[in-house]
Automatic annotation (TrEMBL):
Gene3D superfamilies: 1.10.472.170, Cyclin-like (1.10.472.10)
Keywords in alphabetical order: Metal-binding, Nucleus, Repeat, Transcription, Transcription regulation, Zinc, Zinc-finger
Gene Ontology MF terms in the entry: TBP-class protein binding; zinc ion binding
Source lineage: Eukaryota, Viridiplantae, Streptophyta, Embryophyta, Tracheophyta
SMART domains the record matches: CYCLIN
Name of the protein described by the UniProt record: TFIIB-type domain-containing protein
Chief location: nucleus
GO biological process, one term: transcription preinitiation complex assembly
Length: 312
């Protein structure tokens, strides 16, 4: 039971939901507060004829506006225990005869969904990547290109546009073997094609070092105080002309913060967690060091500690 305001009782009362009638009823006076409610929860009853069929779902998937038929086409499945002769039967022949124009899109969307799940991305990013791929595919100019790299590049661009950027190395780790250079070339190709479609440059969103900080710190198992200090340091670093990529700056700041704490992290661990080469972190540290007293919060480290910082 839950609480709701009853107009007769003039106060919050416990209500009872009648599932058979779809009514919400006040438990004290019996007033029907809401009738014919729609149950939006999942349908888990199973009506399978086959004893071995454990699928409890009786409905299809959600509609997809990017597909020609909205994703509501019917596919004749192979019966349980059927032999290879099924495809030679009349039903099998009719199934194969009607070619699905969206078959390639469906496979691509499934691949994007798999990559998104492995990276822990939200549904809005996955949907944006699907939309980008559909727009590129509609131009019929992507034939002969590495499909895995193309899908990974769509996901990379979607992350940038949704202000939840991922590094190319992170995208590459779930890209089914596509190399970093291939994803980079695919990204440039997609940006060019979308620019031609719109007649203007494509907004990619600006990358800041702070976009990666919480995730990198989590990968290293840093405590809350160190994470807060790292985030403040990264924000202050943007006030200075440090000509390094945001990811390199984030890695260097994490190195500095961990060296000032009791839980020091080896350079190798920071390199693995951030995807930045050890040599790049060393060079970024050298570029940050002249400003270290201005970017590291005063509450986190004393000036004497900053002077004792050693280059990795």
């Amino acid at each position: 039971m839950s609480d709701a305001f009853c107009s007769d009782c003039k106060r919050q009362t416990e209500v009872v939901f009648d599932h058979s009638a779809g009514d919400t009823v006040c438990s004290e006076c019996g007033l029907v507060l809401e009738s014919h409610s729609i149950d939006e929860t999942s349908e888990w009853r199973t009506f399978a004829n086959e004893s071995g069929d454990n699928d409890p779902v009786r409905v299809g998937g959600p509609t997809n506006p990017l597909l020609t038929d909205g994703g509501l086409s019917t596919v004749i499945a192979r019966p349980n225990g059927a032999s290879g002769e099924f495809l030679s039967s009349s039903l099998g022949r009719w199934q194969n005869r009607g070619s699905n124009p969206d078959r390639g899109l469906i496979v691509a969307f499934k691949t994007i969904a798999t990559m998104s799940d492995r990276l822990g991305l939200v549904a809005t990013i996955k949907d944006r990547a699907n939309e980008i791929y559909k727009r590129v595919e509609d131009q019929k100019s992507s034939r002969g290109r590495n499909q895995d790299a193309l899908l990974a590049a769509c996901l990379y661009i979607a992350c940038r546009q949704e202000d939840k950027p991922r590094t190319v190395k992170e995208i590459c780790s779930v890209a089914n073997g596509a190399a970093k250079k291939e994803i980079g070339r695919a990204k440039e190709y997609i940006v060019k094609q979308l620019g031609l479609e719109k007649g203007q440059s494509v907004e990619m969103g600006t990358i800041h070092a702070g976009d990666f900080m919480r995730r990198f710190c989590s990968n290293l198992g840093m405590n809350n105080q160190a994470v807060k200090a790292a985030q403040e340091a990264v924000q202050k670093s943007e006030e200075f002309d440090i000509r390094r990529s945001p990811i390199s700056i984030a890695a260097a700041v994490i190195y500095i913060i961990t060296q000032l704490s009791d839980d020091k992290k080896p350079l190798k661990d920071i390199s693995v967690a951030t995807g930045v080469a050890e040599g790049t972190i060393r060079n970024s540290f050298k570029d940050l060091f002249p400003y270290v007293s201005k970017i590291i919060p005063n509450w986190y480290a004393k000036e004497e500690d900053l002077k004792n910082l050693c280059s990795p």
